[in-house]
Structures are given as C-alpha cells and as structure tokens.
Amino acid sequence: MQAIDTLTPCPCGNSDGYGRCCGLLHEGAVAATAEQLMRSRYSAYVLKRETYLLDTWHHSTRPAHLKLATQQPAPTWLGLTVKRHESEGDRAIVEFVARLRYGGGKAQRMHEISRFVREDGRWFYVDGEFPEKSGD
C-alpha cells in the first residue's frame, strides 16, 4: 500500500487534496453518491488499497482477492475522467475512463460503465461493462 501526503491532490483528480477527498472514504466515511464511491475506488487502485476495494465490492460479485501487490508489471495510473453518473433510488451507473500504463508501455484507456447498488445507506460496486472501442 502506498503512502500519500494528505495535501497532495487526490488521485481521483480532486485538487482539494487526498485528505479531504478519497482519504476520508478510505478511513471509513460513507460515500454520498455512487460517483464518489467510484472515484474512491479509482484512488484505492492507485494506492493499492485492496481491502478497501473488496469492502466496497458487492458481496454477490466480489472476488476473493485482487492480488494488487503482486501485479506484474504494475500499472501506473495516469488519470480519471468521469463521463456520466446516473442514479435512480438505490441503483446507479457511473461511466468513466481511466488512463494507465503497464511497465514502460504506451498509455492505455480503460472505459467502463459501472453498476452500483446502495444497501443500508452504503454504495457498493456491482460490476461493469466495457463498451466497444469508439471515438470517445
């Protein structure tokens, strides 16, 4: 797990700083929206916070482990763009593009439309689909 200065801009792109953004959720605060949870999950991938990722993954689709610490080559996360957030009651979708690089390779884009569900006041990631490559 990587350490991060609380004044450093948050990995999710919020300039308020990690300590005022995803850091609060990583320490136990509850995400108010599915988008906020998705951003905190992106930051958790950047910081290799596997426990947080598993804890915020819905039990019906949660893997046993992610093995982030042993991922080779490890990705370098380059940024996040949220394209859309739609919420209706206790269900939501968040469409985003995450940019990353593996080893010394060229930068790649991961475009996902993620589904979220809220149970007992907490949002959980359920699953995602990867739209066909397009000119996005």
What does this structure look like?
The protein has three helices and four strands. With 136 residues, the chain is of the alpha+beta class. It has a single domain, classed as Nuclear Transport Factor 2, Chain: A. The longest helix has 14 residues, at 34-47. The protein is globular.
Topology:
Layout: H1 22-26, H2 34-47, H3 50-55, E1 75-88, E2 91-102, E3 108-119, E4 122-129
Gist?
Residues 33-128 form the YchJ-like middle NTF2-like domain. Belongs to the UPF0225 family. The protein has three helices and four strands, in the order αααββββ.
Please, how many domains?
Answer: 1
Average pLDDT taken over every residue: 92
End-to-end distance, in Å?
32 Å
Please tell me the CATH architecture by its name.
Answer: Roll
Task: Please list the strands of the largest sheet in the order they lie side by side.
Answer: 1-2-3-4
Pattern of helices and strands: HHHEEEE
- The 3D shape can be described as globular
Q: Let me know the number of strands.
A: 4
The CATH topology is given as Nuclear Transport Factor 2, Chain: A
Poorly predicted sequence stretches spanning 5 or more consecutive residues: none
- Please state the CA-atom Rg, rounded to the nearest Å: 14 Å
- Percent range of helical residues: 10-25%
Strand content: 25-35%
Structural class: alpha+beta
Enumerate how many helices there are, as a single number: 3
Largest sheet: 4 strands, antiparallel
CATH class annotation: Alpha Beta
